[in-house]
Amino acid sequence: MALGLWLAKAAQGRVPLPAPPPSADQLLGQAEATAKSEHKKILVVFGASWCGPCSMFDKFLNNPQVQAALNKSFVMVHLDVGEVKGDKAHSNNPGGVEEMARLGGGGEGYPYVAMLDDEGNWIADSKMPQDNEPGRNMGYPSGQAEIDWFMRMVKKAARDMPAADMKTVREWLEQRSR
User: Fold this and answer.
1) For residues 57 and 145, is the Cβ–Cβ distance under 8 A?
2) What are 130's strand-pairing partners?
3) 3-state helix vs strand vs coil in the chain, percent to 5
4) Among 122, 127, 153, 161, which is least packed by CB within 10 angstroms?
5) What domains, with CATH codes, occur in the chain?
């Protein structure tokens, strides 16, 4: 009954329905086109609005110095994949969970980060190997080992990134590490 009343009010324009988020295919297709035209790689962040480490990673990516350094080599894409069902304010990007799985992520926490070439092919991800075991998602790179792994990811994906930009990224993370 309550849902029916809400839908009736929405139809009358009293309650705006949120626009559905763009699909993972749409966002990645746009990123691939931009990456090809600008000769860049793609950095994809999979996460959720409620995720604390995701917020920390977003703060890192949105820092003006870090953003300037990374934007020279990467096109950034954020895909929501862990939103709570029924949350009217936040929803997953359609196809995002499947894309994360295709790239080797899932089931190990957020954010999961993947770096791709300009055609969407995997180059590196945030699954950090530990003691000869398969990699585990590091999430936000807050410790020295995670920072080192993230920097290896960046170096592997963006081989021509200037040393000064690599230094900017590393120093920002190290100054805020645990």
Assistant:
1) no
2) 133
3) 45, 20, 40
4) 122
5) 40-175 (3.40.30.10)
Q: How many CB atoms lie within 10 A of CB 68?
A: 11
| 19: helix, strand or coil | coil
- The per-residue pLDDT for range 87-143, each reduced to its tens digit, is 888 899 999 999 999 999 988 899 999 999 999 999 999 999 887 777 899 999 999
From CA 28, how far away is CA 75, in angstroms rounded? Answer: 10
d(CA 78, CA 61): 11
Write down the pLDDT at residue 50: 94
Query: 58: Cβ–Cβ under 8 A, 6 or more apart, which residues?
Result: 45, 47, 78
Strands (E), the chain: 41-47, 74-80, 112-116, 122-125, 127-130, 133-137
Report the mean per-residue pLDDT for the chain.
90
Q: What is the DSSP string of 32-53?
A: HHHHHHHT-EEEEEEE-TT-HH
Cβ-based neighbour number of residue 64 at 10 Å:
7
**Whole-angstrom distance, CA of residue 70 vs CA of residue 64:** 10
Q: What is the rounded distance in angstroms from the CA atom of residue 135 to the CA atom of residue 103?
A: 13
The amino acid that residue 34 corresponds to is T
Nearest CA among 120, 86, 119 for reference residue 103: 120
Residue 11 has pLDDT above 90, yes or no: no
Residue given tokens 């081989």 in the structure block: 159
8-state DSSP, 160: T
